[in-house]
Amino acid sequence: MGRCGLLTDSWNNLSLSLNLRSTFHEHEHAIMNFWQNNIDKPIIGLSPMDGVTDASFRFITAKHGGPDVMFTEFVNVEAAFFAPHTLIKDLTYSEIERPVVAQIYGHTPEMFYQVAHIVCELGFDGLDINMGCPAKKVAAKGSGAALILNPELARTIIRTAGQGIRHWFEGQTLCDLKMNPELIQQIRISNRLRTGLETPPRRRLIPVSVKTRLGYDQIVVEEWIQTLLEEKPSVISLHGRTLKQMYRGNADWEAIARAVDLAKNSGTLILGNGDLQDMKDVYRRVRETNVDGVLLGRSALGNPWIFRSKDQVKQTLRSNGDVSIHHAPISLEERFRVILEHGNHFEKHWGIPKFLGMRKHLAWYCRAFRGAAELRSQMVRLNNVSEVVECLRNYVASLALQPVERGSSADSSAPAGL
Q1: Strands 269-273 and 235-239
Q2: CB 76 within 8 A of CB 111
Q3: How does pLDDT run across 79-118, given as a tens digit for each residue?
Q4: Distance between CA atoms of residues 319 and 323, nearest Å
Q5: With pLDDT > 90 as the criterion, what percentage of the chain qualifies?
Q6: Which of 37-51, 72-86, 316-330 shows the lowest per-residue confidence on average (mean pLDDT)?
Q7: pLDDT-derived band at 404, boundaries 50, 70, 90
Q8: Distances in Å between the alpha carbon of 165 and those of 85, 95, 354?
Q9: For the CA atoms of 78, 80, 83, 89, what is the dihedral angle to 10 degrees?
């Protein structure tokens, strides 16, 4: 029997118990819900971004910025059954990232049930379901933002993922689900490499959240959010555009504010997302909409330091605007040091043959300093960290030959140590 047959049989055997077992233990669930208990509001986190928020990007952002919460790139639930090595690679994380949430996507409830077990077995702090990706290759299969058009399936997926978490908490194992022994072994190795321990993660209930959009081809935020609230997710992260808009136009924060009103007293937090360029934008949107928090995406590209001033935002909101929000400039020395740290982490994690994926990150770091455009054009042609070092050395040498402009900032000074 093939792997698909095993999956179907396993699901059929479990379907009756899914309906008969008890619901979440509310007291224990509350204890384990970091969203409600462990983060000062407003929550200011790093948004999941496909092709961007990989293990290296998150490690650097956690170390040099410190967002309140981080998400993995979204991972297709089918990978657990057809590409287990890819699944483990994409769900690799470091302890410094906590709280860290695994984001998954798909359209098959039984796969969500099983992958929820894997997410728990890997020790994640939460599970997030992507119902907002606008990419054609995702939506065309009924996943991502296409689930907005299929509210009953969306509800079933949320419910089934939660059941998977609960059954894992109650003692169900990956072996009970007849999962691939190779995948089980890779999970054990991944945990050991991350923690240095042979013991598996402590069994605990982790919260389920959803990331979505305002609608598919039109704004239906009232109906859609109400549908999601029926399943009581811990968090709904809401991007202020429809699928049809992709990333065009302006994010509609008024619609996000309406979602906040709908979720009042529901126990579900609403996080806003879209067009947040800096912490002043965060402050303004939180005050205007009363969201429980925000997720920053594109403004964090090449800028892990953006999260350093998040506590200033929280203090300013508590004092009704009496504290100013400012962000200390980043020197070239620190910028280049982080570039090399990021490159080394990426090369170690993914290998030199995949270093092409690092080029966009190198380019994002090169902005807002003298000669940034020229350096950026060189960075997108590099193939390994050694070439990055040489490129930065050449840049520093060229600076030494240029006259220092009067009144130039510390960010345009030549860094040492290259």
Answers
A1: parallel
A2: no
A3: 999 999 999 999 999 999 999 999 999 999 999 999 999 9
A4: 7
A5: 82
A6: 316-330
A7: low
A8: 22, 21, 34
A9: 120
Q: Which of 199, 203, 201, 197 is nearest to 172 (CA)?
A: 203
pLDDT given for residue 328 in this prediction = 84
Residue type, 130: N
**Cβ atoms 310, 64 nearer than 8 A:** no
What is the total residue count of the chain? 418
Q: Structure tokens of 191?
A: 């945990």
Tokens of 76: 């297709």
Domain 332-412 class, CATH top level:
mainly alpha
Whether the per-residue pLDDT at 11 is higher than 70: the answer is no
For 3-318, the fitting CATH number among 3.40.50.720, 3.20.20.70, 3.40.50.300, 3.40.50.970 is 3.20.20.70
Instruction: Tell me if 125 sits within 8 A of 206, measured CB to CB.
Output: yes
Domain residue spans in the chain? 3-318, 332-412
Q: How many helices (H) and strands (E) does the chain have?
A: 18, 9
Whole-structure pTM value = 0.89
Distance (Å, whole) CA 399 – CA 296 = 33
Q: d(Cα 215, Cα 242) in Å, to the nearest integer?
A: 5
Q: Is the pLDDT assigned to residue 16 strictly greater than 50?
A: no
Tokens found for residue 262: 């709908």
Q: Which residues pair with 236 in a beta bridge?
A: 210, 270
Cα 363 from Cα 339, distance rounded (Å): 10
For the chain, the straight-line distance linking the first and the last C-alpha, in angstroms and rounded, comes to 58
- Would you call 78 helix, strand, or coil by DSSP? coil
